[in-house]
């Protein structure tokens, strides 16, 4: 666990509060640490050192130990806007990265005002989150998913059963990378597995036949762990320790490459997108059920996975109750050349009568 010794005491206390009381993951708290350290360095450079231009190398060397809580109390919303502009202009942070920094600042100042009571007013109370472009999430099609699972044979890898089980769980359960590497043998009960998600929130996910068969095949060849603390871990590395997130990312990359799907931006998280998309598009899973499967707090988060495919839109158009209505064939108007039959003459007289009647009606109007 990081000790955050490069931070002033109030920032250390906030980070430990987020870690131990709020139950945020170590990865999330470390991201808060980086973002808030950058913010305090910006405050020191602009408010204490009065530097209009911030040299990148010197900026990284700035110590934030001497930034007092008095300096923090003098920070205004304009200072925060200046910091966000700095991250955009000089650090090329995109909207998503700046949004994460806003989240860190909000949590930090809320702690200082509401929990630690070190500030009277919260300068970021009305700070808005940068607008994010709602891009369609990337995912594998059903055909690509099948290729990924079937294009690799056991002879290609000494850890085939383990890797196949990892891919199967990703594509069928939509779990997060951290959730997968954290699975213990004791978490598996019959056809369910207990996952530890964001904020230490537990949920139970059901395993279908494909997952159960893949897990059974893997456990049959799983070697005993080397270390005692890995004894209960489901997925082990070749060294007999709990598999790391980085190793799982490498495994996914290797399988994508063998399936001819490398270089397209796919990752373990994209497999989560894929699982959610396939469940929604092909399994007709209700969005509220999908929310529980994915472990989302808000239904609005789940909605990004419910993008519809072009085939679904095509099917919707084809199943319209009016899709069978077609225009009537236009009656052929005879040319002046050649004789006119009695039937054609009758039809022309009838059309002429209708037109005259319409003209009289317009005249009386």
Write a structural description.
- The protein is mainly α.
- Helices cover 53% and strands 3% of the residues.
- It has a three-stranded antiparallel beta sheet with strand order 1-2-3.
- It is globular.
- Mean pLDDT is 83; it is low at 357-365.
**Computed Rg:** 32 Å
Proportion of residues in β-strands: under 5%
How is the biggest beta sheet arranged? 3 strands, antiparallel
- Structure classification: mainly alpha
- Strand order of the biggest β-sheet: 1-2-3
Which residues form runs of ≥5 with pLDDT under 50?
357-365
Average pLDDT reading: 83
Helix content: 40-55%
Distance between the termini: 89 Å
Q: Shape from CA axes? A: globular
Total DSSP helices: 16
SSE layout and pairings?
Elements: H1 9-20, H2 26-48, H3 56-61, H4 69-73, H5 77-89, H6 95-115, H7 142-150, H8 160-173, H9 177-181, E1 188-189, E2 192-196, E3 202-206, H10 209-221, H11 245-258, H12 268-281, H13 287-294, H14 299-302, H15 310-318, H16 342-364
Antiparallel strand pairs: 1-2, 2-3
């Amino acid at each position: 666990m990081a000790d955050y010794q490069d931070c002033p005491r109030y920032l250390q206390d906030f980070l430990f509060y987020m870690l131990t009381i709020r139950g945020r993951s170590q990865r999330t708290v470390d991201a808060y640490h980086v973002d808030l350290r950058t913010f305090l360095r910006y405050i020191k450079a602009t408010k204490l050192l009065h530097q209009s231009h911030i040299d990148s190398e010197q900026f990284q060397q700035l110590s934030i130990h001497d930034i007092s809580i008095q300096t923090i109390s003098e920070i205004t919303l304009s200072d925060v806007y200046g910091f966000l502009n700095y991250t955009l202009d000089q650090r090329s942070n995109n909207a998503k990265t700046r949004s994460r920094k806003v989240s860190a600042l909000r949590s930090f100042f809320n702690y200082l005002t509401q929990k630690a009571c070190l500030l009277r007013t919260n300068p970021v109370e009305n700070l808005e989150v940068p607008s994010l472009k709602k891009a369609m999430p990337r995912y594998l099609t059903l055909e690509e998913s099948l290729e990924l699972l079937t294009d690799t044979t056991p002879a290609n890898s000494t850890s085939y059963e383990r890797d196949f089980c990892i891919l199967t769980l990703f594509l069928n359960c939509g779990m997060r990378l951290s959730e997968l590497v954290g699975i213990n043998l004791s978490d598996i009960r019959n056809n369910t597995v207990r996952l530890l998600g964001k904020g230490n929130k537990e949920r139970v996910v059901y395993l279908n036949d494909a997952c159960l068969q893949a897990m059974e095949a893997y456990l049959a060849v799983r070697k005993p762990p080397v270390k005692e603390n890995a004894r209960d871990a489901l997925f082990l590395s070749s060294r007999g320790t709990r598999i790391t997130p980085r190793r799982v990312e490498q495994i996914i990359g290797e399988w994508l490459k063998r399936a001819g799907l490398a270089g397209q931006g796919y990752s373990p998280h994209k497999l989560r997108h894929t699982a959610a998309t396939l469940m929604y598009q092909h399994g007709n899973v209700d969005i509220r059920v999908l929310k529980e499967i994915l472990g989302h707090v808000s239904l609005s988060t789940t909605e990004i996975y419910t993008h519809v495919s072009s085939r679904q839109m095509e099917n919707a158009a084809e199943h319209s109750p009016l899709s069978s209505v077609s225009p009537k064939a236009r009656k052929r108007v005879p040319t002046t050349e050649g004789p006119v039959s009695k039937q054609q003459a009758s039809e022309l007289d009838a059309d002429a009568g209708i037109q005259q009647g319409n003209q009289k009606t317009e005249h009386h109007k």
